């Protein structure tokens, strides 16, 4: 599929999605959000794709926020619709994919950019990365899940400070907060993400998809995460991957998971 604002490339079990609007510091606009949805959806439905990596083009930005010009004149109803549609189309969609998604944050990740990174299953960052939710400096709040996912990841107090001050934190601070898992030099970032992806791909993709459901359930109102874990654990016993994994373990050999 051809895209205007992103690139999507597959190699060796990994689909790499790159936001490609360098002149706009990869800012999110309506078309880019739709294209990202389409690319993630295609990767999710590609049996060969075991891991997705999302990053930004150039050396300055992962995603430097939303394209403010698109909604500067919106009214209350239009603003609410913007947030609802965006969350459903991209941010919640990514969080609930059964294919693991790694955000490789290669520069500024602000506003919607940080919100997309937080919707991914985990994050790695380059040393030059800067992250923040500056929306209150524009008279608005994060609308793509930022007020919910940030405190889940860094704690309520730190999230309150970041949102209220509209300030940025650097990669090392993000690492100390638990917002990112690893920090490396920019030239090593994609290699690190691919190395982690390689470790993931050695394991059962079926079990990983069920683990994602169970972990996410802990953050859903009205959901009992323990019950979801029990259900997903039980389902594993009906998979070919479980048979292969246990047989390989007992036979003292490396598992060759069929992904079923």
Main CATH class of the largest domain: Alpha Beta
Continuous helix count: 10
Side by side, the strands of the main sheet go: 1-2-3-5-7-10
The CATH architecture name of the largest domain reads: Alpha-Beta Complex
Overall strand count: 10
Overall 3D form? globular
* Average predicted local confidence, pLDDT: 96
How many domains would you count in the coordinates? 2
List the helices and strands and how they pair.
Layout lengths: L5 E6 L2 E6 L10 H15 L6 E6 L4 E3 L12 H20 L5 E5 L2 E3 L1 H8 L2 E5 L3 E3 L13 H9 L1 H10 L2 E3 H7 L4 E3 L4 H13 L3 H13 L7 H12 L3 H11 L10
Parallel strand pairs: 2-3, 3-5, 4-6, 5-7, 6-8, 7-10
Antiparallel strand pairs: 1-2, 8-9
Task: Output the keywords.
globular; 45% helix; 260 residues
Structural features, described:
There is one protein chain. The protein is an alpha/beta fold and 260 residues long. It has two domains: 6-201, 2-enoyl-CoA Hydratase, Chain A, domain 1, CATH 3.90.226.10; 205-250. It is 45% helix and 17% strand. Strands 1-2-3-5-7-10 form a six-stranded mixed β-sheet, sandwiched between helices. A four-stranded mixed β-sheet has the order 4-6-8-9. Helix 1 links the parallel strand 2 and strand 3. Helix 1 (30-44) runs parallel beside helix 2 (76-95), helix 2 (76-95) runs parallel beside helix 3 and helix 8 runs antiparallel to helix 9 (225-236). The radius of gyration is 19 Å and the shape is globular. It starts with 5 loop residues before the first strand and ends in a 10-residue tail after the last helix. The model has no long low-confidence stretch (mean pLDDT 96).
């Amino acid at each position: 599929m051809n895209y205007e604002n992103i690139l999507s490339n597959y190699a060796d079990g990994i689909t790499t999605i790159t936001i490609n609007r360098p002149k706009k510091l990869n800012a999110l606009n309506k078309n880019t959000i739709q294209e990202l949805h389409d690319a993630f959806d295609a990767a999710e439905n590609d049996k060969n794709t075991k891991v997705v990596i999302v990053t930004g083009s150039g050396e300055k930005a992962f995603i430097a926020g939303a394209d403010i010009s698109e909604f500067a004149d919106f009214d209350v109803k239009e603003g609410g619709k913007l947030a609802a549609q965006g969350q459903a189309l991209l941010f919640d969609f990514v969080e609930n994919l059964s294919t693991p998604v790694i955000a490789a944050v290669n520069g500024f990740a602000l506003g919607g950019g940080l919100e997309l990174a937080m919707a991914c299953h985990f994050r790695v960052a380059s040393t030059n990365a800067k992250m923040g939710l500056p929306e209150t400096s524009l008279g608005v709040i994060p609308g793509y899940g930022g007020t919910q996912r940030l405190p889940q990841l860094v704690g309520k107090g730190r999230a309150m400070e970041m949102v209220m001050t509209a300030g940025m934190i650097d990669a090392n601070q993000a690492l100390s907060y638990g917002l990112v898992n690893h920090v490396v030099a920019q030239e090593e970032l994609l290699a690190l993400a691919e190395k982690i992806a390689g470790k993931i791909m050695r394991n059962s993709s079926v079990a990983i998809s069920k683990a994602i459901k169970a972990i996410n359930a802990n953050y859903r109102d009205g959901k009992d995460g323990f019950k979801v874990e029990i259900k997903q654990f039980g389902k594993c016993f009906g998979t070919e991957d479980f048979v292969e994994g246990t047989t390989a373990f007992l036979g003292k050999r490396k598992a060759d998971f069929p992904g079923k």
